[in-house]
Write a structure and sequence with these properties.
Length: about 425
């Protein structure tokens, strides 16, 4: 007769196998009817643009040394990057509605690659800031178009499809920043950026040749952009579920941008780790996040948006522990556990997109994401200014407190909108 421990182990194993089987079935469905290659192409571009953007935090110590930036100045550079990324969202959404996803996504990759090329060639701080702004704007153009394309490709499994593609940037961020850190340490920070440029051009060609000219079809309301369109947008964006979900996104993105912007610098300057080791820990964080996104999407599809915030709650004790732990192996565990921090993104974005009518989906969500990331972009410069005044640890504790407030507020999201 089996003892209690054995029965619990077998029960847990059975549940895990059932989860794997269900997840495998979901992936098979996503690949049906020839949609798998389109999803892969969109995800690859999203992974590349986001991964390349996250090279900045890893190379921040090198940029500070080359350009004489303080932590406040470094925070300002990240704020410029994130703010222009936010500003790119709205025109990206409008372009997706008017000229189609293929042209919009390809344009994004083209602008980003050119900006990154000139970042490598820049020689002064003002030029670096301007080119960083152009790069952030180019990356921002990508965000909304991939949402609207996937919404049309997967009307019945939207949350899961978004979860899978949201894993792509985490893979990109798990791979590209560590590679950039190693390359920068070996041959110079310019090469840490430069190796990504050919990848942008390759993915641009793949997207142009694989996506249909206009994935999402006609959207007459935005094509005319009449006073009626503005009335619909104003009405939809003021609905309480949209307002609350947007507030949660603002809080979450503010935490995420401050954390990712300074985590490698914190590890090198406060924990005494080398730049390559800090880059690896940074990559582990994103690697863990890659598993969280599909999980969050699946939970959203089955249980609703509220339940996904329970996953985010795991990051609260991890951020608190980060301020006191010194052992590198414990930092490995904390970095992996912090992968739950972004568990809110997939579910809340899916929630917002599904709340908006299809006639203003791209433009409406573009407005929301522009607002979300523009407000969230202020967090790096605030964090950097506090760190310059020796409040590094206290800022991470503040981030933990904000996440806790998010988890509590999420319980008030209306279920009926899911």
């Amino acid at each position: 007769m089996l003892n209690t421990g054995t029965r619990r182990y077998l029960s847990a194993s059975t549940l895990f196998l059932r989860y794997l089987s269900a997840f495998g079935s979901e992936l098979k469905h996503l690949g049906s009817d020839g949609r798998g290659s389109l999803l892969l192409a969109i995800g690859a571009g999203w992974g590349l643009t986001t991964g390349a953007r996250t090279i900045y935090p890893v190379l921040l110590p090198h940029l500070r040394a080359s350009y004489g930036l303080t932590l406040t100045g470094a925070g300002a550079l990240l704020t410029v990057l994130f703010a222009t990324y936010a500003l790119g969202q709205l025109p990206g959404g409008i372009l997706a509605d008017r000229i189609g996803e293929r042209k919009t996504l390809t344009l994004s990759l083209g602008v980003s690659s050119v900006a990154l090329l000139f970042v490598v060639l820049s020689r002064s701080s003002p030029v670096l800031f301007v080119l960083t702004a152009l790069f952030g704007f180019g990356v921002g153009l990508y965000a909304i178009a991939r949402f609207t394309a996937i919404a049309t490709l997967y009307p019945e499994r939207y949350g899961t499809a978004i979860g899978v593609t949201n894993a792509a940037p985490e893979v990109g961020q798990a791979v590209l920043p560590p590679v950039a850190g190693v390359v920068a340490a070996a041959v110079g920070w310019q090469f840490g950026f430069g190796f990504a440029i050919p990848l942008f051009l390759i993915i641009a060609v793949v997207l142009w040749t694989s996506l249909p000219a206009h994935t999402a079809g006609e959207r007459g309301a935005v094509d005319t952009f009449s006073s009626e369109t503005l009335r619909v947008l104003r009405s939809e964006l003021r609905k309480p579920p949209v307002v609350l979900a947007t507030l949660l996104m603002i809080l979450g993105i503010s935490v995420w941008q401050a954390f990712t912007g300074f985590y490698p610098t914190y590890l090198t300057e406060e924990k005494g780790l080398s730049s390559p080791v800090a880059s690896v820990l940074f990559g582990l964080y994103f690697g863990a996040t890659a598993f969280v996104h599909p999980l969050s999407g699946a939970i959203y599809d089955r249980l609703g948006v509220r339940f996904t915030y329970a996953v985010v709650g795991l990051s609260v004790p991890a951020l608190v522990a980060l301020t006191v732990v010194e052992n590198v192996w414990l930092l490995v565990v904390i970095s992996i556990l912090l992968g739950t921090l972004l568990g809110f993104e997939t579910s809340t974005e899916s929630y917002l997109v599904r709340t908006l009518p299809s006639s203003v989906e791209g433009t409406g969500f573009g407005i929301l994401r522009t607002t979300i990331f523009a407000v969230g972009a202020t967090s790096p410069i605030v964090f950097g200014a506090a760190a310059d005044r020796d409040f590094f640890d206290e800022m991470f504790l503040l981030l933990a407190a904000i996440l806790f407030v998010m988890v509590v507020l999420a319980t008030r999201l209306p279920v009926a909108t899911d």
